[in-house]
User: Fold Paraquat-inducible protein A from Advenella incenata.
Amino acid sequence: MTGNYIACHHCGQLHERSALVSGQRASCVRCGTVLWSQGVLNSSAWLAIVLTSLIAFIIASFMPVGTITAVGLKSSSTFLEAVAATWRAGYPSVAIMCFATGFLMPLLDALILAWLLAFSRKGQRAPGLNQLSRWLHWVRPWAMVPVFMLGALVAIVKLADMASLTPGAGLWAYAALTFLLTGLSKLNSERVWLLAEQDGAVKNIPVTIDPQQLPLDCEICGQITMSTEPEAQCQRCHNHVHFRKPGHRTRTLAILLTAIILYFPANLYPVMINTTVLGGTASHTILGGILELWNLGSWDLALIVFIASFVVPLTKIVILGILIGRPAQGRRDTMMRYTRMYQTVELIGQWSMLDVFVVILLTSLVNFGSLMSVRPDVGAAAFGMVVVVTMLATMNFDIRKGWDQVDDDIEQPDYQPAATAPTFS
Assistant:
């Protein structure tokens, strides 16, 4: 059986690809995951959005996020100045994490998209397409501009009782950039390859299904490669592909245990220290900061921070622990629940970085020497590492392994593809 196929990244089910009309999407017949969609935007339209986001990104990065006035003094800060202030305060690990997630990764993401789409819209294969699409896949989860935008709003509220703050051009640019990047989040590496197919820049290689071979799914370009070995090279983009991630459970468990160890100092130690000439020195833990927002009357932001900084990391740890420690043992209904749980962890992963961004922004803005200052503390470094480590644990886990044990009437032992996936508007 020869044709163009696509595999579900969450259960491994093969589907025959079919043409969709604009606005339609196809979902997996087994676990319900959306496989692909036919958007209304072509490569030229996506390129226009990417270029607009780059302009907004430059403004956001190099213009002040805000200016505060206290005791007759003024202080303003850009994002990069906040990173530099955090480094000077003695926490290079926090500075590096924030620089990477708030500046470097989003910039690389946008530049790669601009390069690939610029050639695709002309029906040409972009030079370096294979490597650049891999980079796009790797950097995308670590681009956290929307998280920083929310962190800036939290910082503004925290400053309300100690100084007056005037929003700067950088803050408005971040707001626009958040809106643009939310749309661009749909444009992952597979979607870029799909657009290139539609533009005639690349072709999907037909696959012959052989019961004696394993279908290896490429997460970069979506191509299926048949092989007698559990790992091989993608026949289209030459990415190293596996039938299933080897040793995923042991590796995920080791990373998860690291996250659990870091979780305690992240919550017990202060994330920042506030020093004033009149009030002395006050330390703030994550929960202390939440209570402060609540006492200021910002119960909505307090709830957001509580969810992002306390509930989300704990939820990720608990869910991953369940997925590792309680196998579904072939039960389809359990695997459906586990798949939704795993998708939730994938979705919420980066939002825990919120408090770390708040700390670096306050460190830079509240900088009046001995009169008033804020500096990060060990809790911020530990909490940032919790975010990074739990995201790595999620990336290393392979939910498809559980589906391999499910015996239902959709997945066949010889991995025959299902009928064309259902489409809906």
